[in-house]
Recover the amino acids of this structure.
Protein backbone atom coordinates (compact mmCIF):
# COMPACT_ATOMS: atom_id res chain seq x y z
CA UNK A 1 0.00 0.00 0.00
CA UNK A 2 1.34 3.42 -1.00
CA UNK A 3 0.57 6.65 0.84
CA UNK A 4 -0.54 10.11 -0.20
CA UNK A 5 -0.61 12.63 2.64
CA UNK A 6 -2.44 15.96 2.27
CA UNK A 7 -1.53 18.63 4.81
CA UNK A 8 -4.49 20.97 5.20
CA UNK A 9 -8.23 20.36 4.76
CA UNK A 10 -9.20 23.83 3.63
CA UNK A 11 -10.45 24.60 0.13
CA UNK A 12 -7.41 23.29 -1.77
CA UNK A 13 -6.81 20.20 0.36
CA UNK A 14 -10.47 19.18 0.40
CA UNK A 15 -10.80 19.47 -3.38
CA UNK A 16 -7.67 17.36 -3.87
CA UNK A 17 -8.86 14.72 -1.41
CA UNK A 18 -12.11 14.34 -3.33
CA UNK A 19 -10.46 14.23 -6.74
CA UNK A 20 -7.91 11.62 -5.66
CA UNK A 21 -10.39 9.46 -3.74
CA UNK A 22 -12.56 9.25 -6.85
CA UNK A 23 -9.66 8.21 -9.09
CA UNK A 24 -7.15 6.06 -7.20
CA UNK A 25 -7.67 2.42 -6.30
CA UNK A 26 -8.27 2.14 -2.56
CA UNK A 27 -6.50 -1.20 -2.38
CA UNK A 28 -3.35 0.41 -3.79
CA UNK A 29 -3.35 3.89 -2.28
CA UNK A 30 -4.07 5.17 1.20
CA UNK A 31 -5.02 8.85 1.38
CA UNK A 32 -4.58 10.72 4.66
CA UNK A 33 -5.59 14.34 5.23
CA UNK A 34 -4.48 16.38 8.24
CA UNK A 35 -5.93 19.52 9.79
CA UNK A 36 -5.95 21.03 13.25
CA UNK A 37 -9.70 20.78 13.90
CA UNK A 38 -13.00 19.52 12.55
CA UNK A 39 -14.47 22.81 11.28
CA UNK A 40 -14.40 23.90 7.65
CA UNK A 41 -14.79 27.66 7.17
CA UNK A 42 -16.11 29.34 4.04
CA UNK A 43 -13.66 32.20 4.36
CA UNK A 44 -15.14 34.46 1.64
CA UNK A 45 -18.21 34.65 3.88
CA UNK A 46 -16.28 36.45 6.64
CA UNK A 47 -16.61 39.64 4.58
CA UNK A 48 -20.39 39.72 4.96
CA UNK A 49 -20.73 39.09 8.70
CA UNK A 50 -19.96 42.65 9.93
CA UNK A 51 -22.75 43.97 7.72
CA UNK A 52 -25.41 41.50 8.87
CA UNK A 53 -25.62 39.69 5.51
CA UNK A 54 -24.27 36.38 6.83
CA UNK A 55 -24.15 34.85 10.28
CA UNK A 56 -21.35 32.63 11.62
CA UNK A 57 -23.49 29.52 11.02
CA UNK A 58 -23.54 30.31 7.31
CA UNK A 59 -19.78 29.96 6.98
CA UNK A 60 -18.86 27.06 9.32
CA UNK A 61 -19.66 23.39 8.70
CA UNK A 62 -18.13 20.04 9.78
CA UNK A 63 -15.07 19.04 7.73
CA UNK A 64 -16.15 15.40 7.63
CA UNK A 65 -19.26 16.30 5.65
CA UNK A 66 -17.08 17.39 2.72
CA UNK A 67 -14.34 14.77 2.80
CA UNK A 68 -14.80 11.48 0.93
CA UNK A 69 -15.35 8.15 2.62
CA UNK A 70 -12.40 5.82 2.66
CA UNK A 71 -9.71 8.34 3.49
CA UNK A 72 -8.07 8.79 6.88
CA UNK A 73 -8.73 12.11 8.63
CA UNK A 74 -6.29 13.18 11.33
CA UNK A 75 -7.04 16.18 13.54
CA UNK A 76 -3.71 17.59 14.68
CA UNK A 77 -1.42 20.51 13.96
CA UNK A 78 1.84 19.79 12.14
CA UNK A 79 5.15 19.72 13.95
CA UNK A 80 7.65 19.31 11.10
CA UNK A 81 7.94 17.94 7.54
CA UNK A 82 11.03 15.81 6.94
CA UNK A 83 11.48 15.47 3.15
CA UNK A 84 14.62 13.34 3.37
CA UNK A 85 12.72 10.73 5.39
CA UNK A 86 9.45 11.11 3.40
CA UNK A 87 7.55 11.67 6.62
CA UNK A 88 5.57 14.25 8.59
CA UNK A 89 5.68 14.55 12.36
CA UNK A 90 2.44 15.79 13.91
CA UNK A 91 1.96 17.64 17.18
CA UNK A 92 0.05 14.65 18.55
CA UNK A 93 3.31 12.63 18.22
CA UNK A 94 1.99 10.66 15.25
CA UNK A 95 4.38 10.12 12.31
CA UNK A 96 2.93 9.87 8.80
CA UNK A 97 4.97 8.23 6.03
CA UNK A 98 4.25 9.22 2.45
CA UNK A 99 5.12 8.38 -1.13
CA UNK A 100 3.67 11.71 -2.25
CA UNK A 101 2.94 14.78 -0.14
CA UNK A 102 0.55 17.62 -0.95
CA UNK A 103 1.10 20.78 1.09
CA UNK A 104 -2.14 22.76 1.35
CA UNK A 105 -1.47 24.48 4.67
CA UNK A 106 -2.80 27.87 3.55
CA UNK A 107 -2.03 31.38 4.76
CA UNK A 108 -2.94 32.88 8.11
CA UNK A 109 -3.22 36.45 9.50
CA UNK A 110 -0.40 37.32 11.89
CA UNK A 111 -1.35 40.57 13.66
CA UNK A 112 1.53 40.18 16.14
CA UNK A 113 3.93 40.94 13.27
CA UNK A 114 2.93 44.63 13.48
CA UNK A 115 3.92 46.61 16.55
CA UNK A 116 0.92 47.89 18.49
CA UNK A 117 -1.74 46.15 16.39
CA UNK A 118 -2.75 43.69 19.11
CA UNK A 119 -2.35 46.23 21.90
CA UNK A 120 -5.12 47.74 24.09
CA UNK A 121 -7.36 48.53 21.11
CA UNK A 122 -7.49 44.99 19.72
CA UNK A 123 -11.15 43.99 19.16
CA UNK A 124 -12.25 47.20 20.87
CA UNK A 125 -11.67 49.72 18.10
CA UNK A 126 -9.15 47.68 16.07
CA UNK A 127 -10.51 44.65 14.22
CA UNK A 128 -9.69 42.21 11.45
CA UNK A 129 -12.27 40.46 9.29
CA UNK A 130 -10.01 37.61 8.09
CA UNK A 131 -10.85 35.47 11.12
CA UNK A 132 -14.21 34.35 12.45
CA UNK A 133 -13.44 35.87 15.85
CA UNK A 134 -12.49 39.21 14.33
CA UNK A 135 -15.40 39.51 11.95
CA UNK A 136 -18.02 38.56 14.57
CA UNK A 137 -16.54 41.04 17.07
CA UNK A 138 -16.71 43.73 14.38
CA UNK A 139 -20.32 42.82 13.68
CA UNK A 140 -21.22 43.47 17.31
CA UNK A 141 -19.30 46.76 17.27
CA UNK A 142 -20.91 48.13 14.09
CA UNK A 143 -24.42 47.65 15.50
CA UNK A 144 -23.81 50.48 17.98
CA UNK A 145 -21.17 52.66 16.28
CA UNK A 146 -22.32 56.19 15.57
CA UNK A 147 -19.63 57.28 13.13
CA UNK A 148 -16.11 58.69 12.88
CA UNK A 149 -12.90 57.97 10.95
CA UNK A 150 -12.82 54.40 9.60
CA UNK A 151 -9.41 53.33 8.28
CA UNK A 152 -9.04 50.11 6.29
CA UNK A 153 -5.38 49.11 6.22
CA UNK A 154 -3.53 46.36 4.35
CA UNK A 155 -0.28 45.92 6.26
CA UNK A 156 1.63 44.17 3.47
CA UNK A 157 1.17 41.93 0.46
CA UNK A 158 0.51 39.14 -0.38
CA UNK A 159 -2.81 38.55 1.35
CA UNK A 160 -5.63 36.07 0.98
CA UNK A 161 -8.27 37.31 -1.46
CA UNK A 162 -6.63 40.60 -2.55
CA UNK A 163 -9.99 42.17 -3.50
CA UNK A 164 -11.63 41.56 -0.10
CA UNK A 165 -10.38 44.81 1.54
CA UNK A 166 -11.83 46.79 -1.38
CA UNK A 167 -15.10 44.91 -1.06
CA UNK A 168 -15.12 45.75 2.64
CA UNK A 169 -14.75 49.46 1.81
CA UNK A 170 -17.58 49.31 -0.75
CA UNK A 171 -19.87 47.41 1.63
CA UNK A 172 -19.08 49.86 4.44
CA UNK A 173 -20.18 52.71 2.17
CA UNK A 174 -23.45 50.84 1.47
CA UNK A 175 -24.01 49.74 5.07
CA UNK A 176 -23.58 53.17 6.65
CA UNK A 177 -25.75 54.69 3.93
CA UNK A 178 -28.47 52.18 4.84
CA UNK A 179 -28.00 53.03 8.52
CA UNK A 180 -28.43 56.73 7.73
CA UNK A 181 -25.02 57.74 9.11
CA UNK A 182 -22.80 57.72 5.99
CA UNK A 183 -22.38 61.50 6.33
CA UNK A 184 -20.85 60.84 9.77
CA UNK A 185 -18.35 58.24 8.53
CA UNK A 186 -15.07 59.13 6.84
CA UNK A 187 -13.61 56.06 5.11
CA UNK A 188 -9.92 55.86 4.23
CA UNK A 189 -8.39 52.97 2.27
CA UNK A 190 -4.72 52.58 3.19
CA UNK A 191 -2.63 50.23 1.06
CA UNK A 192 1.04 49.43 0.39
CA UNK A 193 0.21 49.20 -3.32
CA UNK A 194 0.66 52.18 -5.68
CA UNK A 195 -3.09 52.04 -6.42
CA UNK A 196 -6.30 50.30 -5.44
CA UNK A 197 -5.28 46.86 -6.79
CA UNK A 198 -2.34 44.82 -8.03
CA UNK A 199 -3.22 44.95 -11.76
CA UNK A 200 -3.00 48.44 -13.37
CA UNK A 201 -6.20 48.33 -15.47
CA UNK A 202 -8.31 46.97 -12.62
CA UNK A 203 -6.57 49.34 -10.20
CA UNK A 204 -7.61 52.34 -12.28
CA UNK A 205 -11.24 51.19 -12.45
CA UNK A 206 -11.42 50.35 -8.75
CA UNK A 207 -9.73 53.63 -7.86
CA UNK A 208 -12.53 55.42 -9.73
CA UNK A 209 -15.06 53.46 -7.63
CA UNK A 210 -13.35 54.68 -4.45
CA UNK A 211 -13.60 58.27 -5.68
CA UNK A 212 -17.27 57.91 -6.62
CA UNK A 213 -18.07 56.48 -3.21
CA UNK A 214 -16.15 59.25 -1.41
CA UNK A 215 -13.56 56.84 -0.03
CA UNK A 216 -10.09 58.34 0.39
CA UNK A 217 -7.17 56.34 -1.05
CA UNK A 218 -3.78 56.47 0.68
CA UNK A 219 -1.35 54.47 -1.46
CA UNK A 220 2.30 53.38 -1.05
CA UNK A 221 1.77 53.22 2.71
CA UNK A 222 4.17 50.71 4.30
CA UNK A 223 2.73 50.19 7.78
CA UNK A 224 5.36 50.35 10.51
CA UNK A 225 3.33 50.41 13.71
CA UNK A 226 0.01 51.31 15.29
CA UNK A 227 -0.10 54.02 17.96
CA UNK A 228 -3.15 52.98 19.97
CA UNK A 229 -2.88 55.87 22.44
CA UNK A 230 -3.13 58.59 19.79
CA UNK A 231 -5.11 56.32 17.45
CA UNK A 232 -3.02 56.54 14.30
CA UNK A 233 -1.27 54.33 11.80
CA UNK A 234 2.39 55.18 11.27
CA UNK A 235 4.32 54.13 8.17
CA UNK A 236 8.02 53.27 8.01
CA UNK A 237 8.64 56.69 6.39
CA UNK A 238 6.72 58.31 9.29
CA UNK A 239 3.52 59.22 7.46
CA UNK A 240 0.46 59.12 9.71
CA UNK A 241 -3.20 58.17 9.23
CA UNK A 242 -5.52 58.88 12.19
CA UNK A 243 -8.46 56.60 12.93
CA UNK A 244 -11.36 56.14 15.29
CA UNK A 245 -11.85 52.56 14.10
CA UNK A 246 -9.13 50.56 12.37
CA UNK A 247 -9.94 47.60 10.14
CA UNK A 248 -6.65 45.78 9.66
CA UNK A 249 -5.66 43.18 7.11
CA UNK A 250 -2.60 41.92 8.99
CA UNK A 251 0.51 40.34 7.53
CA UNK A 252 -0.43 36.96 6.06
CA UNK A 253 2.04 34.11 6.53
CA UNK A 254 2.25 30.43 5.69
CA UNK A 255 2.00 27.76 8.36
CA UNK A 256 4.65 27.85 11.09
CA UNK A 257 5.47 24.20 10.36
CA UNK A 258 6.99 25.32 7.05
CA UNK A 259 9.46 27.50 8.93
CA UNK A 260 10.27 24.67 11.33
CA UNK A 261 10.83 22.38 8.36
CA UNK A 262 13.47 24.78 7.02
CA UNK A 263 12.33 25.25 3.43
CA UNK A 264 9.93 28.21 3.35
CA UNK A 265 10.62 31.80 2.31
CA UNK A 266 10.58 34.73 4.76
CA UNK A 267 6.76 34.50 4.98
CA UNK A 268 6.72 30.68 5.30
CA UNK A 269 5.46 30.06 1.76
CA UNK A 270 6.78 26.98 -0.02
CA UNK A 271 9.01 27.38 -3.12
CA UNK A 272 6.88 26.00 -5.94
CA UNK A 273 7.22 25.58 -9.70
CA UNK A 274 4.80 28.15 -11.11
CA UNK A 275 3.48 25.80 -13.82
CA UNK A 276 3.66 22.20 -12.57
CA UNK A 277 2.96 22.99 -8.87
CA UNK A 278 5.73 20.57 -7.91
CA UNK A 279 7.71 21.87 -4.96
CA UNK A 280 11.32 22.96 -5.35
CA UNK A 281 12.03 21.05 -2.14
CA UNK A 282 11.72 17.48 -3.45
CA UNK A 283 10.09 15.89 -6.50
CA UNK A 284 7.49 13.91 -4.53
CA UNK A 285 6.15 17.04 -2.79
CA UNK A 286 3.50 19.20 -4.46
CA UNK A 287 2.03 22.50 -3.23
CA UNK A 288 -1.38 24.08 -3.80
CA UNK A 289 -3.41 27.13 -2.82
CA UNK A 290 -2.25 29.82 -0.44
CA UNK A 291 0.75 27.73 0.73
CA UNK A 292 2.67 28.38 -2.51
CA UNK A 293 5.09 31.24 -3.14
CA UNK A 294 3.64 31.80 -6.62
CA UNK A 295 2.92 35.31 -7.98
CA UNK A 296 -0.77 34.39 -8.38
CA UNK A 297 -3.65 35.54 -6.20
CA UNK A 298 -4.24 33.71 -2.93
CA UNK A 299 -7.92 33.08 -3.58
CA UNK A 300 -10.37 30.19 -3.67
CA UNK A 301 -10.76 30.32 -7.47
CA UNK A 302 -7.00 29.95 -7.84
CA UNK A 303 -7.00 26.87 -5.57
CA UNK A 304 -9.79 25.41 -7.73
CA UNK A 305 -7.89 25.98 -10.99
CA UNK A 306 -4.64 24.73 -9.46
CA UNK A 307 -6.39 21.55 -8.29
CA UNK A 308 -7.19 20.58 -11.89
CA UNK A 309 -3.54 21.04 -12.86
CA UNK A 310 -2.13 19.35 -9.77
CA UNK A 311 -4.45 16.38 -10.19
CA UNK A 312 -3.16 15.75 -13.72
CA UNK A 313 0.47 16.22 -12.74
CA UNK A 314 0.26 14.05 -9.63
CA UNK A 315 -1.20 11.19 -11.67
CA UNK A 316 1.66 11.68 -14.15
CA UNK A 317 4.19 11.59 -11.33
CA UNK A 318 2.65 8.41 -9.92
CA UNK A 319 3.01 6.79 -13.35
CA UNK A 320 6.52 8.27 -13.78
CA UNK A 321 5.48 10.31 -16.81
CA UNK A 322 6.55 13.93 -17.58
CA UNK A 323 4.42 16.63 -15.96
CA UNK A 324 2.67 18.29 -18.88
CA UNK A 325 -0.21 20.20 -17.26
CA UNK A 326 0.71 23.85 -16.70
CA UNK A 327 -0.91 26.37 -14.36
CA UNK A 328 -1.08 29.82 -15.99
CA UNK A 329 -1.89 31.85 -12.86
CA UNK A 330 -5.61 31.95 -13.65
CA UNK A 331 -7.73 33.89 -11.14
CA UNK A 332 -11.41 34.75 -11.32
CA UNK A 333 -12.92 37.06 -8.71
CA UNK A 334 -16.32 38.59 -8.11
CA UNK A 335 -16.02 41.98 -6.40
CA UNK A 336 -19.01 43.03 -4.32
CA UNK A 337 -19.43 46.79 -4.84
CA UNK A 338 -22.43 47.46 -2.60
CA UNK A 339 -26.06 48.37 -3.30
CA UNK A 340 -26.70 44.85 -4.76
CA UNK A 341 -24.14 45.26 -7.52
CA UNK A 342 -20.77 43.70 -8.26
CA UNK A 343 -17.89 43.41 -10.69
CA UNK A 344 -15.99 40.44 -12.10
CA UNK A 345 -12.34 40.15 -13.10
CA UNK A 346 -10.60 37.27 -14.90
CA UNK A 347 -6.82 37.28 -15.37
CA UNK A 348 -3.62 35.23 -15.16
CA UNK A 349 0.15 35.62 -14.84
CA UNK A 350 0.49 37.47 -18.14
CA UNK A 351 -2.94 38.91 -18.98
CA UNK A 352 -4.55 41.76 -17.07
CA UNK A 353 -8.31 41.86 -16.41
CA UNK A 354 -10.12 42.78 -19.63
CA UNK A 355 -13.73 43.80 -20.41
CA UNK A 356 -16.13 41.31 -22.01
CA UNK A 357 -18.59 38.55 -21.16
CA UNK A 358 -18.05 35.45 -18.98
CA UNK A 359 -18.12 32.47 -19.16
CA UNK A 360 -19.94 32.34 -22.53
CA UNK A 361 -18.63 34.76 -25.19
CA UNK A 362 -21.23 37.36 -26.09
CA UNK A 363 -23.78 35.89 -23.68
CA UNK A 364 -22.30 35.95 -20.20
CA UNK A 365 -24.39 36.04 -18.08
CA UNK A 366 -21.61 37.85 -16.22
CA UNK A 367 -19.87 41.03 -17.39
CA UNK A 368 -16.14 41.58 -16.94
CA UNK A 369 -14.85 44.90 -15.58
CA UNK A 370 -18.42 46.19 -15.39
CA UNK A 371 -20.68 46.82 -12.39
CA UNK A 372 -23.92 44.83 -12.70
CA UNK A 373 -26.62 43.26 -10.55
CA UNK A 374 -25.90 39.88 -12.20
CA UNK A 375 -22.33 39.97 -10.90
CA UNK A 376 -23.71 40.56 -7.40
CA UNK A 377 -26.00 37.55 -7.78
CA UNK A 378 -23.00 35.51 -8.95
CA UNK A 379 -21.11 36.49 -5.83
CA UNK A 380 -24.00 35.53 -3.57
CA UNK A 381 -24.71 32.25 -5.41
CA UNK A 382 -21.10 31.17 -5.06
CA UNK A 383 -21.61 30.10 -1.44
CA UNK A 384 -23.99 27.35 -2.64
CA UNK A 385 -21.57 26.38 -5.41
CA UNK A 386 -18.74 26.23 -2.89
CA UNK A 387 -20.47 23.92 -0.40
CA UNK A 388 -22.22 21.68 -2.92
CA UNK A 389 -19.91 21.46 -5.94
CA UNK A 390 -16.48 23.01 -5.65
CA UNK A 391 -15.37 21.40 -2.37
CA UNK A 392 -16.50 18.00 -3.60
CA UNK A 393 -14.22 18.23 -6.64
CA UNK A 394 -17.10 18.44 -9.12
CA UNK A 395 -16.39 19.51 -12.68
CA UNK A 396 -17.41 23.14 -13.14
CA UNK A 397 -17.95 24.82 -16.55
CA UNK A 398 -14.84 26.98 -16.17
CA UNK A 399 -11.50 25.81 -17.55
CA UNK A 400 -8.40 25.86 -15.38
CA UNK A 401 -6.55 27.78 -18.11
CA UNK A 402 -7.73 31.32 -18.77
CA UNK A 403 -9.35 31.79 -22.16
CA UNK A 404 -9.52 34.96 -24.26
CA UNK A 405 -12.96 34.00 -25.59
CA UNK A 406 -15.45 36.76 -24.84
CA UNK A 407 -12.80 39.30 -23.84
CA UNK A 408 -12.13 42.63 -25.56
CA UNK A 409 -8.66 44.15 -25.65
Amino acid sequence: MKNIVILGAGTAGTIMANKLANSLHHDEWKITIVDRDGEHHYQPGYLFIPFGIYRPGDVVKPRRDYLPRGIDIVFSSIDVIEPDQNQVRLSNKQVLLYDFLIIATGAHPQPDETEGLTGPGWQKNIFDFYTLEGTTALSRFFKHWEGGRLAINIVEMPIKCPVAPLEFAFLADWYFTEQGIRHKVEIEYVTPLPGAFTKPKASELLGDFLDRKNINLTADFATGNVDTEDQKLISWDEREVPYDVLISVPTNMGDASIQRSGFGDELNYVPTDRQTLRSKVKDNIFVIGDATDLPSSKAGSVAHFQADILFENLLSAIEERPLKAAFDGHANCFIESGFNKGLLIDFNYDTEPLPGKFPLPGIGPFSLLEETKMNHYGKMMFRWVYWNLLLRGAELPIEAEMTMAGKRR
Remarks:
- The radius of gyration is 21 Å.
- The helical segments are 11-21, 132-142, 164-178, 200-212, 256-261, 300-318, 373-390.
- The longest strand covers residues 331-338.
